[in-house]
Amino acid sequence: MSEKVVPVVTRKGNEDARTGQSGGAVRVSGVSPQHTPATKIWFGRVSNEPGFRSPPHHHGEAETGGYVLKGHGRIYFGEDYSEYVDMTEGDFVFVPPHMPHVEVNMSTTEELVWLTTRTPDNIVVNLPDVPDEALEGYRRA
User: Fold this and answer.
1) What is the pLDDT of residues 74-99, one digit of tens each?
2) What predicted TM-score, i.e. pTM, was given to this entire model?
3) Which regions of the chain does DSSP assign to beta strands (E)?
4) What is the CATH code of the structural domain delimited by 30-130?
5) What is the rounded distance in angstroms from the CA atom of residue 105 to the CA atom of residue 49?
6) Does residue 132 contact residue 74 with C-beta atoms inside 8 Å?
7) Residue 46: C-alpha distances to residues 82, 88, 126, 128 (Å)
């Protein structure tokens, strides 16, 4: 006899925070193996307070898709994190597996909020930090 399969809703305030974190990038999941029957996807909300950034990191084998709900984000990547892409509300971004990067909130007054999905899970591999001055155009609040 098979078990009945039904949609699982994670209510606001009941998201799971037991996930990989990196500095100023705060991740909470709404759909993940940690608290739903999901086995091949992590889907959650990532936020950065004004002027905050993550340390360098990558997401292992995971492919990452992001959508900016609010704010102005920048992802630094490449040699010495000298390259970057900017995103604002309504933009989508794809970050390939194993790509070292730094996620920043370019505003010193407004929160940055992303919706992010990864497969198979929210893998976060933190790397050695870099000084703020190495990130062109970045400044803290």
Assistant:
1) 999 999 999 999 999 999 999 999 99
2) 0.86
3) 25-31, 42-48, 57-58, 63-70, 72-77, 83-88, 92-95, 101-105, 112-119, 125-126
4) 2.60.120.10
5) 7
6) no
7) 23, 14, 16, 21
